[in-house]
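Exercise 7b. Backbone tokens:
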């Protein structure tokens, strides 16, 4: 693999269909958009497009670790220059609308009408994690769908917000005041743009924060709902802080977990004083719904 002379590059990795989610999750940080298409015979091609040539060693390591977690040998990685073209617009066109429970997720160029009773979430495939396609995000939206009929939420936190899809969903579901926090300042920039385009700027505030370091989180009143769609290690480390920041009777939604990782998390949050209400399975990914 050699460095590019054009402004856009494309990365391709072929994996068995059941390893699609884990490979997408591993590769999403390296580019500006991630998409998949069928490669035939049970194979999925994961495609990443970006503007800045990635660290090839880091890409190879991420691919190898993702493959190992799925019980696969590391697949071949192809990185090529792209001829001038609006590749990001083409990627947006490959992102058709879809529904998860009451939520209808669509691109910003969607010209149709959201069905009565559905909640529209406008997002484009881009530089921050979270278009609703990933099973961990779907698990969180399904948890909100279960909570919505009998849960009052006035204040909420989306910890590790990425694109802010979950913060936007909370604001549109309950009319709640939401803090959307991420350690990545670029993701927070994308989140702010998505918050504006979805018309929830009066409800959602996006901030840069490592855990609860930001004053917007650490000094805030207790939250009625906290969602954290990150990874097992950070979730376990944050168990005590999350429990301290959710009000008694409040709900916590945790995701970013592969099947088999739930036991470690259940123990950490049980020790922190939270009760497991439900486990939501989407493919090989797990979302846990807790109450304090």
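Sequence design result:
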């Amino acid at each position: 693999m050699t460095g590019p002379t054009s402004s856009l590059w494309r990365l391709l990795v072929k994996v068995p269909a059941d390893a699609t989610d884990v490979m997408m999750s591993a590769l999403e940080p390296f580019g500006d958009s991630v998409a998949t298409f069928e490669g035939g015979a049970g194979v999925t091609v994961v495609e990443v497009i970006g503007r800045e040539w990635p660290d090839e060693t880091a890409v190879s390591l991420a691919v190898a670790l993702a493959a190992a977690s799925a019980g696969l040998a590391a697949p071949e990685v192809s990185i090529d220059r792209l001829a001038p073209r609006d590749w990001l617009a083409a990627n947006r066109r490959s992102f058709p609308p879809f529904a998860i429970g009451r939520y209808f997720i669509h691109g910003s160029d969607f010209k149709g009408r959201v069905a009565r009773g559905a909640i529209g979430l406008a997002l484009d495939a881009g530089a921050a994690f979270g278009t609703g396609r990933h099973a961990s995000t779907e698990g969180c939206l399904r948890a909100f769908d279960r909570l919505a009929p009998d849960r009052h939420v006035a204040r909420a936190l989306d910890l590790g917000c990425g694109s802010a899809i979950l913060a936007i969903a909370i604001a549109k579901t309950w009319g709640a005041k939401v803090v959307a926090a991420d350690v990545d300042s670029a993701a927070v920039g994308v989140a702010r743009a998505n918050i504006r385009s979805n018309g929830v700027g009066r409800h959602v505030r996006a901030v840069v924060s490592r855990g609860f370091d930001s004053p917007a989180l650490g000094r805030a009143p207790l939250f009625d709902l906290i969602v954290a769609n990150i990874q097992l290690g950070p979730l376990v480390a944050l168990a005590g802080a999350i429990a301290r920041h959710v009000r008694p009777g409040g709900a916590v939604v945790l995701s970013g977990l592969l099947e088999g990782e739930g036991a470690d998390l259940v123990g950490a949050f049980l020790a922190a004083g939270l009760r497991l209400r439900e486990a939501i399975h989407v493919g090989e990914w797990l979302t846990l719904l807790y109450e304090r």
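Instructor comment: Confidence is low (pLDDT under 50) at residues 1-6. The chain has ten helices and 14 strands.
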